[in-house]
Design goal:
Blueprint (H helix, E strand, L loop, with lengths): L4 H6 L14 H5 L7 E3 L2 H15 L3 E3 L5 H15 L2 H29 L3 E5 L4 H11 L3 E6 L5 H11 L4 E3 L4 H11 L3 E4 L4 H7 L3 E3 L10 H16 L3 H5 L13
Parallel strand pairs: 1-2, 3-4, 3-6, 4-5, 6-7
Helix pairs in contact: 4-5, 5-10, 6-7, 8-9
Protein name: Nitrogenase MoFe cofactor biosynthesis protein NifE
Organism: Calothrix parasitica NIES-267
InterPro entries: Nase/OxRdtase_comp1, NifE-like
């Protein structure tokens, strides 16, 4: 939320409560006064959103903060749901300004990341929202997991991946290494415990779970993600790792 709230504040939209790891008890206690609920993970929060709509008449939407297109759609949907024409006009102006600035910042990264193939192994909303963010950078997600994904999530994944994309309902190191090999992936994006799988496959790795140190949501988060993807992919260590070991290059003298 750190990269998203400042954008909403520019539009004059007040975030009344955040029911996330950054929430405070006081915020939760008056959350029922909100005009709109924005749900990020339907698997975890759909029941709460439905109950708040039933008890307090608060409509809800499901959105993603990852990627340029998703962030733009989120802002447009919020402005539309709040039903303020002036807000909608200001939203379009802000989107144009933020997108122009972002395109300039992302240009060097897009040039280096374009065409890189990625296997994504995460869950819930990130299993489809990160696909959208990767596409914004010119990357291709060739496979993703569907663990902790709702049927709606799976439909979005199928639409984003296309016919050739692989959906993995379950995964383990052996399965991930097999998929990485079959798809000729350049990188694995997953939770921290899968970094050793990437090392075994000798490909770069990016930690996408919430324990990471940098925020990827919002416009500024997109720059963070692009920078870290670039640093991981172009680290000189991968050239060394993929070379034969010194003892494998020894010649036998007869």
């Amino acid at each position: 939320m750190w990269n998203v709230i400042p954008v909403l504040e520019k539009l004059g939209i007040r975030v009344l409560s955040k029911i996330t790891g950054d929430a405070r008890y006081k915020e939760v206690s008056y959350a029922h006064r909100a005009k709109l609920n924005v749900m990020i993970c339907s698997k975890a929060l759909i029941n709460m959103a439905r109950k708040m709509e039933e008890n307090y008449g608060i409509p809800y939407i499901e959105e993603s903060f990852y990627g340029v297109d998703d962030m733009n759609r989120f802002l447009r949907t919020v402005a539309s749901k709040l039903g303020d024409k002036d807000l909608q006009e200001r939203t379009e102006k802000l989107i144009a300004e933020e997108t122009a600035k972002l395109d300039e910042k992302l240009a060097p990264y897009r040039a280096r990341l374009k065409g890189k193939r990625v296997v994504l192994y995460t869950g819930g909303v990130k299993s489809w929202s990160i696909i959208s963010a990767a596409k914004d950078l010119g990357m291709e997600v060739v496979a993703t997991s569907t663990k902790k994904s709702t049927e709606e999530d799976k439909a979005k994944i199928k639409n984003l991946l296309g016919q050739d994309g692989i959906m993995m309902p379950k995964g383990n190191p052996q399965e991930l290494i097999r998929v990485i090999g079959e798809t000729k992936a350049d990188m694995l994006i997953a939770g921290g415990r899968n970094q050793y799988t990437a090392l075994k496959a000798r490909i770069p790795f990016l930690d996408i779970n919430q324990e990471r140190h940098h925020a990827y949501a919002g416009y500024d988060g997109m720059v963070n993600m692009a920078r870290e993807l670039d640093e991981a992919l172009y680290s000189p260590v991968w050239q060394q790792i993929r070379q034969p070991a010194p003892w494998e290059q020894l010649t036998v003298v007869s």
